[in-house]
Write a structure and sequence with these properties.
homohexamer, 156 residues, alpha+beta, Alpha-Beta Plaits, 5-stranded antiparallel beta sheet, 4 helices, cyclic pyranopterin monophosphate synthase activity (chains A, B, C, D, E, F), Cyclic pyranopterin monophosphate synthase (chains A, B, C, D, E, F), molybdenum cofactor biosynthesis (chains A, B, C, D, E, F)
Chain lengths: 156, 156, 156, 156, 156, 156
């Protein structure tokens, strides 16, 4: 079985040393889903003066840049691209976030952090109507680049 | 139907003005669940040199303090207490986060942010074994204090 | 003549001690103007999928919360309200930012920082078309609350 | 006419993907002017114990490092040099800020952010004497490096 | 023997709940000493264009505001005053930092963080001459306010 | 005698321009010692539910990432590795912190900042028992890489 590289031989959490890893382009996409009932979805304003889902998008983009400050074992690294999409779908709002870098380590956590914070921002703006809104299925959809190879999540 | 206080009359997202709200004690507890299969759970080291779930706890506590930097319409406020618990349970790791303040607005977002970042930290430390780990059911469990009254989530 | 309270008797910059100041509601509004020619203004997209001036608004709101991190002699304080408006007008984009607190010191710098960063965000999004865009007239429009009394800028 | 690269085909603000851009040395210099009347300028202490314009310089340098946290569509990147100068001139204080990097994108926003925050810091330290101080002409003076070529602002 | 309030009954580190503590004025002063030999001290520039010890002072003031972000079990709180002094003395540079708040918990950590970062800033500016510079005796000098009473360090 | 590269010809503190420096692997290790008497050391909980020294380790790792935000003349740079060890020894707790990067400048300040903040975190968790705890001997142990050559501190 593979080793958990974030722990040393004594079980102590640690940062992985990526000094020797190749500086290649790496990209990751993550998703989150904010489940809310029809009543709340219908109350979400949508108009030319500023679609409120934009707030969630910007929050997600800014959060991706903060990832290493938030996740202890993450490496601070430059990011060459971040995008977050928030779409109203059946039963809630679907978030999808992508991050890219040219660095010695991947950006899965940057994509997941962007998706999570965008989802929390949607919750924040809707909680006056329904505190029971739930964020579901925060997960990695796919990653490319790096030695560990590409990954694509199984369908759900 | 109630109004979405985070949007103005034109549908533009905005921060709620809490200048006139009473400075009372407010507390909120949120949960998140990191679903992982038995193989990964069994690989998590647990020993006297440093239980790895501690990393997630600290990450959650520190993230709660960053909430207003992460969630655009949140007010920056002092916090009188933050705690995060991470427990290995059937099918994954259960996170529970509590925040408290004496201020003019609630701390639901602080509790939810702490729970989310703690869950992402668990993901980060386990992703070498399974990139398919999913964070589920990020939600508010209960809140007390403030004019909008107490809230307790329905059982699941 | 009044004293410059941000300097001690030897001329050294210092933070003013506000421990004894009354905790009252204080509000400030600041403005900035991003001057750009008609060609660039016409190129700014405006549509239901997300008015780009929203980006500037959110950047300004988030920057207000960072004021004490940015301006050395500013006190970190809770904010009860922040709002930023960005409006296309003759010759450019007018920014207006308001901040409020209940604290022992004013929020002029929070309003000015929000206006400045919102203006810089507009520059960032338009600089591909015209690097010669200029930010003009970053200034305090009015403040209320606090011992030093209310202030309203003279018309221009 | 050129495209506004910060907006997608639907007019949504977005970050430009710089993954494929060459990592070359890029430098930018920006200016700001803090207009104040002679009375305030004369009151500024200048002595061996600490020239107060130093406060503005340090604030500008530190702000340049925060640029990507403040301007949503900016990429987080390493900086190889930052300098800020603050000079008392006829009618006010002239700020000039320079930033440099070896990266796939330019540092105009870093230079402009440094200049803006340095100017706001001057305002903060002088506002006890005159709240009507205005920050004028925040603008890019020149940039070098990168595919879009060099730029030098026209004289004023 | 007194209890270590930062640990729960199972020995787990935790934040102390200060919700019920009185909001009173609290102040703390801390010191640090940067030991360096006469050769380095003599090389430190001191002139009207900007005493370099100012850099250390500003770094310390800004660091005090970041204390809760840096020290996990510290509460984020407003600060009503911060000051840092850096003085050339026999054998090195003496740092003294003071912080004050009106809050439910003390500011010892804010004063200690300010003193530590100011000392590190001095090291940074002198390390080109002597990497063997040592920071000694980072300690609390005194605190006032709060239920635990006043404290004054014994002479050394 | 060597020049103090952090000051210009007029004695003004400045950031060193590292644009032309080679991007090579650089590593630095720093130490700090938290002196405390036997009574406090004995009270430190050590158990499987979470060794409290872990709090100090995580605080140090996270602080290393904040170095450029804290130390004015430090360059923001990616880090490929950070580790902090905290060990109970005779008379106190010994901290050792290592940072590594592949960049145009060294990481001494990152290692020293990590060691200092880890030491302050230990102080914070023990100050309820003894406010007289002192942090001693914050110093660079060794560095490798870069043009200025390797460095190893003399024994003490």
């Amino acid at each position: 079985m593979e080793k958990l590289s974030h722990f040393d031989e004594t079980g102590r959490a640690r940062m992985v040393d990526v000094s020797e890893k190749a500086q290649t382009r790496r990209e990751a996409t993550a998703a989150a889903f904010v489940a809310m009932d029809q009543r709340v979805l219908a109350a979400l304003p949508q108009n030319p003066k500023g679609n409120p889902l934009e707030t969630a998008r910007f929050a997600g983009i800014q959060a991706a840049k903060q990832t290493a400050m938030l996740i202890p074992m993450c490496h601070p690294l430059p990011l060459s691209f971040i995008d977050v999409a928030a779409t109203i779908t059946e039963g809630g709002i679907a978030i999808e976030a992508t991050a890219a870098t040219t660095a010695g380590t991947g950006v899965e956590m940057e994509a997941l952090t962007a998706a999570s914070i965008a989802a929390l921002t949607v919750y924040d703006m809707c909680k006056a109507l329904d505190k029971g809104i739930v964020i579901r299925e925060v997960r990695l959809l796919r990653k490319t680049g790096g030695k560990s190879g590409d990954y694509t999540a199984a369908d759900r």
